[in-house]
Amino acid sequence: MKNNEKMRGDKQGMTNVCAICGAQINLVQRVKLIDGNYICLKKCKNMGMPDLNYTHASLETVLAHNRQVSEGTKLFTQYFLKEGSMGRLQKNVVTKGKNLYIREDMELIALAYSDYKTFYFGKQFLKACVYSMANLERCEPDISRICVDEQERIKKGLRYSFRNVEGLSEFFVEDSKRKSTKEYFDKLIATQKCNKQKNFHDTVQSDVAGDIFKI
Ligand SMILES: [Zn+2]
Fold first, then answer.
1. Residue 90 contacts by C-beta under 8 Å, 6 or more apart in sequence?
2. Cα gap 101→89, rounded to integer Å
3. Picking from 3-7, 53-57, 126-130, which range would have the lowest pLDDT averaged per residue?
4. Residue 173 and residue 113: Cα distance in Å, rounded?
C-alpha cells in the first residue's frame, strides 16, 4: 500500500486491525465477521477453507476453524498422503466427488484442497479438515451456483453436515456421481446407527445383568 493511501484511510477511519494477528487492514484487505470483528484476508482468512461463510461466522468460529485446518492438514498428510510423494494418495484412500477423501479403515473423512502449482517453502500448498465418520449427520443432494464470465454455472453435488464439530461443520462437494455417493454414505450412517443401538442395547443388558447380580 502506498503511504498516501494509508494516511487517507486512517483519516477517514477506514483502516482497522485484524482481530487475530493485529495487522493493519483497510477496506479491501479485510472481512467483517458477524460479531463485528475484522480479520485480514491475506493471512488469517487465507488459513481457512473457502467453504466457511466468514460473513456469518464469529471470531470464535474462525479461530476454531483455523485450529481445525492446522490439525486437519497434519492428519491428512499423515493418513491420506504417501510420504514425500508430492500429494499422491495412499492406496486405501477412496475419493468421493471433488476434494472429498475417505479412509474407511480409520473411519475418517477429509475435505482437502491442494494446489500443486503453488509451492510453499518447497511443499505443496495443502489445506484439509478431517472428520470422524461417526460425526457425519447428513449427506443430501444440493447445488451450488457460481458465476463464470458473467454466466451462471450450476454445480451438482452433495451437502455434508457433521455434529460435534467446531469450525467448519457443513460444506458442499461437487460430485458427478452424487446418487451412488449418497447411497454409500446412507449405508454408512445406517450401519453407525445400528452399532449405536447395539451398544445401547449391550449397555442396557449389562445394567440389567448388574442389577440381577446385586440381588
Ligand atoms: Zn490477520
1. 79, 80, 81, 82, 103
2. 9
3. 3-7
4. 12
Instruction: Look over the chain and give the mean of its residue pLDDT values, rounded to a whole number.
Output: 83
Distance 18 CA to ligand 1 centre (A): 5
Mean predicted confidence (pLDDT) in 153-157: 93
187 C-alpha vs ligand 1 centroid, how far in Å?
A: 42
User: Which residues surround the ion ligand 1 when the cut-off is CB under 5 Å?
Assistant: 18, 20-21, 23, 40, 43-44
Q: What is the mean pLDDT of residues 139-150?
A: 88
Distances in Å between the alpha carbon of 181 and those of 72, 95, 158? 23, 10, 8
How far apart (Å, rounded) are the C-alpha atoms in residues 43 and 182?
A: 35
DSSP per-residue string spanning 142-208: EEEEEEETTEEEEEEEEEEEESS-SS--EEEEE-TTHHHHHHHHHHHHHHHHHHHHHHHHHHHHHHH
Q: Which DSSP letter does residue 97 get?
A: S
**What is residue 196's predicted lDDT score, i.e. its pLDDT?**
66
